[in-house]
Design a protein that fits this description.
Layout lengths: L17 H8 L7 H13 L3 H21 L4 E5 L9 H8 L4 E6 L2 H5 L12 E6 L5 H8 L10 E5 L11 H9 L7 E7 L5 H13 L9 H5 L6 E2 L5 E2 L22 E7 L2
Parallel strand pairs: 1-2, 1-4, 2-3, 4-5
Antiparallel strand pairs: 5-8, 6-8, 7-8
Organism: Streptomyces africanus
InterPro entries: SAM-dependent_MTases_sf, SAM_dep_MeTrfase_SAV2177_type
Protein name: S-adenosyl methyltransferase
């Protein structure tokens, strides 16, 4: 089937953007000096920032692999970030060639690279939506053009909710995204925490907030609350490195991440 995308806006190179900072942590080239400067400030406070970004990325790989293995055929990935192979659709379509994947992000530079996200298998389909998670209705409406909302959908909010402050009601956002999804759907979350070093993470959060991103780390209890009313997939809420490490690539390329301050979990809508 044909692939699809939507238009986006102007790239603001005058202030850092979380997607481009994440690209910098991963060693990418799609960032600007303002992003690199902010990212280096974070690294000076938390030297494991690059490894934590990689740990998060590898969790996404394992989570997507698990859900595709469970027969999920549809994925809605919000907060996609700048494409870094393998992307989610490449992982799930290798297992389920007919899988449909909708990506969404609010950074126009992601839109510029969205073509890399749209190389679907002939049996499946991928699409890109330029939208902000703070407007769930817009994303859901656009996703309906590609996904069948009568069949289970795997919602992915990986490394996203710690970029949404309490003032934007992240729990409400999660509820509104899950509400139109049918029973048997899933939500995959990962989230930075200050549980183990609150002072450092207060300073990291301040770097993001000074750049205009409403960052906010949360405790294990606060993270777990996002799964209220859902059935947690084993092993429940754990640190990323402890979540199904056996689902790593067979090449042995998915290691590391020991005790990174990153909580992860998958919940199933009953």
């Amino acid at each position: 089937m044909t692939d699809a995308g939507t238009s986006g806006g102007h790239i603001d190179t005058g202030k850092p953007h979380s997607a481009r900072m994440y690209d910098y942590y991963l060693g990418g080239k799609d960032n600007y000096p303002v992003d690199a400067e902010a990212a280096e400030q974070v690294i000076s406070l938390f030297p494991a920032a690059r490894e934590m970004a990689r740990t998060n990325r590898l969790f996404m790989h394992r989570a997507s692999r698990l859900l595709a293995g469970r027969g999920v055929r549809q994925f809605l990935d919000i907060g996609t970030g700048i494409p870094t192979e393998p992307n989610l659709h490449q992982i799930v379509q290798a297992i389920v060639p007919q899988a449909r994947v909708v990506y969404a992000d609010n950074d126009p530079i992601v839109l510029r690279h969205a073509q890399a996200l749209l190389h679907s298998t002939p049996e499946g389909r991928t699409a890109y939506v330029h939208g902000d998670v703070r407007d769930p209705a817009k994303i859901i409406a656009a996703a309906r053009e590609t996904l069948d909302f009568t069949q289970p959908i795997a919602l992915s909010l990986v490394a996203l909710l710690h970029l949404v402050g309490d003032e934007d009601e992240p729990a409400r956002i999660v509820r509104e995204l899950l509400e139109p999804l049918p029973s048997g759907s899933y939500v995959t979350l990962s989230h930075a925490t200050g549980d183990f070093d609150p002072e450092t993470w207060e300073r990291v959060v301040e770097v993001y907030r000074k750049g205009g991103t409403a960052a906010q780390v949360r405790s294990r209890a606060e993270f777990s609350a996002f799964f209220t009313g859902l059935e947690l997939v084993e092993p429940g809420v754990v640190l990323a490195a402890r979540w199904h490490p056996e689902l790593g690539e067979q090449t042995g390329g998915e290691g590391g991440g020991e005790e990174m301050p990153l909580y992860v979990a998958i919940g199933r809508k009953p």
